[in-house]
Amino acid sequence: MAWLASPPPTANMDASIAPDASGVLATPAPRPARHNGTHPASGRPMIEVRNLRKEYVMGAEHVIALDRINLGIARGQICCIYGESGSGKSTLLNQLAGMERPTRGGVRIGGIVVSRLDERELAEFRQKHIGFVFQSYNLLPGLNAVENVAMPLMFRGVPREEREARARAMLRRVGLGKRLNHYPSQMSGGQQQRVGIARAFVTRPQVVFADEPTGNLDSKTKVDIMDMIRDFARENGQTIVLVTHDEHMAAYADRIVTLLDGRIVHDTEQDE
Ligand SMILES: Nc1ncnc2c1ncn2[C@@H]1O[C@H](COP(=O)(O)OP(=O)(O)O)[C@@H](O)[C@H]1O
Ligand SMILES: [Mg+2]
After folding, report:
1. Which residue numbers delimit the ABC transporter domain (predicted)?
2. Which among 195, 207, 217, 234 has the fewest CB atoms less than 10 Å away?
C-alpha cells in the first residue's frame, strides 16, 4: 500500500505526471504488448485499484456497493467489467474515473492517485488523459456533430479551425461524413453513439471509460460500435475499461472481470 502514502500530486499536472509516471502517460506505442498485466517501461499497470470499498448510506441503511476490489489493468488492454444489474459495475467505473470518492482504498491511473485529486485537478486530469463513452450518448443538444466532437479539444486550447478539422476527420472515420452538421435530435441512436466515440477518441486519451456503450442499440449497431472502439484503441495503444452486462460485448475484451454483489468473482483473459 506504499503508493497510497505518497503525497498528493501538485496543482501542476504536467509536472506531477511526467516524472512520477515514468512515461506511462506519454504518447502510447502503436501496438502494445498484451496480457502481461504491466506497462513494460514502468513495470506497473496503467490502472491500479487497491483494496477499494464504496459504501452508500441511505438513511439507516448501508449499501456496500464495492468491497475489497484489487485490480491492475495493463496499458493497451481492453478490460470488460461484467456483471448483472446492481453488481457494482457503474460504481466501479465512477471510482476509477474519479467521479466519486471511494470509502476506502484508492485508484491510480498512470501513477496518479486519482482518488486524491481535488475537483480542479480532477477536471484537468480528465481533460488531458481520459475519454468517456456513455450509454445515453450525452451529446450536447444545442451543438451539431462537429461541435460536439470538437468540444474536448476546445478545453485543451486547440484553435477553432484546427479542432473543427480534427472533429470532421474523426466523424468521417466513424462513417458520419454526411452528418457533420446534424444535431443530436436529427440522428439515430447508433449515429449519436458514433459521435460519442469520435468525441471520446478525438483527443487520443490514454484511457477510455465506456459504461454500457451499446446498451440502447440494436444488435447490428452494437457490433459496429464495438468494432470502432476496439479499432481506435488498438491503433493508439489505449486502455479501455468497458462496462457491460451483455456477454456478446464482453467477448470483444482482452479480459473479463466479473462482479457479483460488489466483489470480483472471476477474472479471465481471452484470446481474440
Ligand atoms: N448513489 C447511490 N446511492 C445509494 N446506492 C447506490 C448508489 N449508486 C449505486 N447504488 C447501489 O449500489 C449497488 C451497485 O450499483 P451499480 O454500480 O449502479 O450497479 P450496476 O452498474 O452493476 O448495475 C446497487 O445495489 C445500487 O442500488
Ligand atoms: Mg450500471
Report:
1. 47-272
2. 234
Domain containing 187 equals 76-98+118-269
- Report CA-CA distances (Å) from 211 to 115, 166, 187, 192, 204: 19, 25, 21, 15, 18
Q: Which ligand is nearest to the CA of 211?
A: 2
Beta bridge partners of 53: 104
Instruction: Check: CB of residue 109 under 8 Å from CB of residue 16.
Output: no
Q: Is the CB of 88 under 6 A from ligand 1?
A: yes
Q: Is 261 part of any domain?
A: yes
pLDDT digits (tens, 9 = 90+) for 24-45: 565 444 444 444 444 445 578 9
Average pLDDT of the chain, as a whole number = 87
C-alpha grid cell, residue 244:
457491460
Whole-number Å distance, alpha carbon 48 to ligand 1 midpoint, is 22
Residue 249 CA to ligand 2 center (angstroms) comes to 15
Whole-prediction pTM: 0.85
The CATH number of residue 93's host domain is 3.40.50.300
Distance from residue 245's CA to the centre of ligand 1 (Å): 14
Residue 197 maps to a domain: yes
pLDDT tens-digit map of 227-242: 999 999 999 999 999 9
Whether the CB of 61 sits within 6 Å of ligand 1: no
In this structure, is residue 108 part of a structural domain?
no
177: helix, strand or coil: coil
